[in-house]
Specification:
Its cofactor is [4Fe-4S] cluster; [3Fe-4S] cluster; [2Fe-2S] cluster. By secondary structure, the chain is an alpha/beta fold. The chain is 27% helix and 15% strand. Bound molecules: iron/sulfur cluster (SF4) and FE2/S2 (inorganic) cluster.
């Protein structure tokens, strides 16, 4: 691993004895295939209010210090799922991680999520992740004629898959899974969560098809129940439980 380099950043003019600003070091794993085949850590020291988020710090670095720093983000409010990254060794959304909550007295490490090819800095190739998502057919499948009114569902039936509707496809779960790290062919937790969302929907009629897809050698049976996915999910989805429910449905064919 290369020795970290240091970029010093000027003190924010608003800093004063009463200022909430503190100096925080962000140690970011940089990779630019046009410059080097090797990634290396680079330190950035910035003045920032610890009540701000890691995403704010990344913006500050990009806008004020080094415009080449590359990362994804869109909504900045935990909805779009585009800024999952490893922060202090744990998968988190940068926009939902307050600096004060991750010990700003020590350098805060930021790197790309694991198991997917890094394209540049914190940006990974999400194509295999979204291909697995598409493979489980994440849409309502029905047979017969078009209904003349909306498809009704009891509150109890809706509750059955409520948890898995919360997924924002951030990939924090899949990229925290050791099975996925070892073999990117595994569908991964996020695809299974999204299959669960339709398998257990009383209005859907494609459950058998999805179960057969997940019965594949790269499907649910690869899960080793490590709970990394549940720990990583920023939406608090019980990912491992959902995977277990899909396994059970495969055995009992009841869903
Ligand atoms: S289940 Fe959670 S961690 Fe996995 S992709 Fe969906 S929101 Fe992200
Ligand atoms: S930027 Fe959209 S979830 Fe963080």
């Amino acid at each position: 691993m290369a020795t970290p380099t240091m970029d010093k950043v000027g003190t924010d003019p608003s800093a004063s004895p009463a200022s909430p600003y503190i100096t925080v070091t962000f140690r970011i794993r940089r990779f630019n295939p046009e410059v080097s085949d090797e990634a290396q850590w680079q330190d950035f020291q910035i003045e920032i209010d610890p009540k701000e988020r890691v995403l704010d710090a990344l913006h500050k670095i990009k806008w004020d210090v080094d415009g080449t720093l590359t990362f994804r983000r869109s909504c900045a409010h935990g909805i779009c799922g585009s800024d999952a990254m490893r922060i202090n060794g744990k998968n988190r959304l940068a926009c939902k991680t307050l600096i004060k909550d991750i010990n700003p007295e020590k350098p805060i490490t930021v790197e790309a999520i694991k198991g997917l090819t890094v394209l540049k800095d914190l940006v990974v190739d999400m194509d295999p992740f979204f291909q697995a998502y598409r493979d489980v057919m994440p849409f309502l499948i029905t047979k017969g004629n078009e209904p003349t009114r909306e498809r009704l569902q009891s509150a109890e039936d809706r509750e059955r898959f409520d948890d898995t509707t919360k997924c924002i496809l951030c990939a924090a779960c899949t990229s925290s899974c050791p099975v996925f790290w070892n073999d990117g062919q595994y569908f991964g937790p996020a695809a299974i969560v999204n299959a669960h969302r339709f398998i257990f929907d009383s209005r859907d009629e494609g459950g058998e098809q999805r179960l057969e897809i997940l019965n594949d050698r790269d499907g649910v049976w690869r899960c080793r129940t490590t709970f990394n996915c549940t720990d990583a999910c920023p939406r608090g989805i019980e990912v491992t439980k959902a995977i277990q429910e899909v396994k059970r449905a495969l055995i009992t064919r009841r869903f």
